[in-house]
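Hi support team,

I submitted a single chain yesterday and got back a structure, but I'm not sure I'm reading the token output correctly. Could someone confirm the output below corresponds to the sequence I sent? I've pasted both exactly as they appear in my results page.

Thanks,
R.
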Amino acid sequence: MEANDRMKYALVVLAFAAWGALVVLGKAAPDRYVDALAISITGLGVHGATKRRAKGTASELDATAAPAANAPAAVQ
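Hi R., thanks for writing in. Yes, this is the structure output for that exact sequence:
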């Protein structure tokens, strides 16, 4: 995880903690807080599932993924 991503997550956690404190004190509606938490957790799951960092080029990945298809023909 990059430093920029860590700062974003820290700020989101801080914002939800402050909002949660307002809910506990009765100054904010809990239904919107629960909805926002559910949407945020779902978004994090989708982000984590779709963010892939491939190493190497596409041809290198193909070579490692299917070595039998790229293998030279057997000499008889």
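A quick pointer for reading it: The two ends are 51 Å apart (CA to CA). Let us know if anything else looks off.

Best,
Support desk
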